[in-house]
Design goal:
alpha/beta, globular, two-stranded antiparallel ribbon, Rossmann fold, 25% helix, 7-stranded mixed β-sheet
Length: 225
């Protein structure tokens, strides 16, 4: 991300994994008048259910193709509020300060390989949220008890340069398609509190990947200080 080419900008929209379901806890922190920003919205898997609940939702993503998929899906749904989908980079969100009540990052930070960019993204989310606004995060946790993931963390380290990261390869070319990072609880909590938030809700979870593998996960709601 940053000024470097973002590999997710060019990936075929159908190849972007979107397997995590929205946790119902988010509805505890929303109200009918909420404006919600879905950061890294992909094909609208989060934006559309929220819109169907009547919320005003804006989705932002760097991938043009996946935004087109999200727009097509929204037209086929009977949403009382049609989501707005915008192309943009999460490190420099194209929205004014204090524009939203809630921001959502569903399996998004895992795609960000730069620690500096992760911090920028959290600060940007903080900037566009209203005072006392909430940031909902659902993301992957390191799963060292799994032999499959343990071997990938170790074997991929020379490429990823960060413990807990794994490499996904292009099935056709065999080249690196993207790197995904799995977090520790400490990583995510410090990332939030060092960039303008306090953790209000935290839950350990288990997610199932597109290939059927089970992986640790975290559900977090943080409040803008």
């Amino acid at each position: 991300m940053g000024e470097q080419t973002n590999p997710w900008e060019c990936i075929n929209g159908k190849n972007i994994p979107t397997t995590i379901e929205l946790d119902p806890i988010i509805y505890k922190y929303t109200s009918p008048a909420c404006r919600i920003l879905d950061i890294g919205c992909a094909n609208g898997k989060v934006s559309l259910p929220l819109a169907l609940h009547g919320y005003s939702v804006t989705g932002v993503d760097v991938n043009t193709e996946v935004l087109s998929m999200a727009k097509s899906s929204s037209k086929s749904q009977n949403c009382s509020q049609i989501p707005l989908f915008v192309k943009g980079n999460a490190t420099t969100l194209p929205f004014p300060d204090a524009s939203f009540d809630v921001a959502v990052m569903q399996a998004f930070l895992t795609t960000v390989v730069s620690k500096d960019d992760r911090a920028r993204i959290i600060r940007e989310a903080c900037r566009v949220l209203k005072p006392q606004g909430h940031l909902y995060i659902a993301d992957f946790g390191q799963t060292w008890h799994s032999k499959i993931y343990r071997e990938r963390y170790i074997n991929d380290l020379p490429v990823t340069k960060e413990e807990g990261s794994i490499v996904a390869y292009d099935e056709v070319t065999g080249e690196v398609a993207y790197i995904a990072h799995h977090f520790t609880e400490k990583e995510l909590v410090l990332l939030l509190i060092e960039n303008g938030f306090e953790v209000e809700y935290f839950k350990n979870d288990e997610f199932v990947t597109r290939t059927g593998k089970r992986v640790n996960g975290f559900i977090i709601v943080a409040t803008k200080l």
